Input
Amino acid sequence: MLYPSHQGAPDGRVVVPSQQYHGPGQQATANALTSFVTYAIAMQDLDEKSFPDEYEAHRDRLLKLEPMLRAHGILDVMEIRHPKIKALLQRQ
Output
């Protein structure tokens, strides 16, 4: 039996490279990016003075995720538009 020289779905479709799973490191990066965006959206809608504990928790989570995103170049290609979050990441 001959096998195709590329990976494909059983129906003959070729798997798009961005949809292929290459290992735990890439999955962790994708999870970090998803978490970062989730926390950033939650943080931008919070009033720092009305909800200081929640704001600080989101800020700390963003700062913990930042090194992984920087190491993988995510923050080099992603523009942070919210002024407070942008300033937070520029301090580091």
Remarks:
- Residues 7 and 14 are 7 Å apart (CA to CA).
- The chain has a mean pLDDT of 78.
- The chain has one domain: 24-90.
